[in-house]
Amino acid sequence: MDEQRYLYVSDHVKGEVRRYKFGENIGTLVAGGNGQGAGLNQFNYPRYLFVDRQQNVYVSDCSNNRVMKWKKGAKEGIVVAGGQGDGNALTQLQYPVGIFVDTLGLFFGKSSSNYFTKSRQCTLIPFSERKGYTQLKYL
């Protein structure tokens, strides 16, 4: 839910994200909506969402191993993390599941194999969570 009290919902079957006002049944398409796929205007299992104060929508596009940012009113998204296949390299994610963007634009996320963060300068920093450790460690 954003500051204007709109509720955002991802639909992994249709490959889209919709925004709903209270009491609305249909909602407004804000991301995707072009079927499942790997194009910049598509998702393949959109799952987790984050909406910032400017109503930019960040979506974990799980089966495409990427996180997409959709600016308000955009017809296609921007890959902000991953998008280069499944893996642990700096340009790869493995099934991204959790995302958060702070007020300074610093991006945090969790994939099934690691944690990652991305600054405004687009530096991707992977972390590893290992058994027995209570803190995140740089790889």
UniProtKB/TrEMBL annotation:
Keywords: Repeat. Transmembrane segments: none annotated. NHL repeats lie at residues 37-73. This is NHL repeat protein. It comes from Rotaria magnacalcarata.
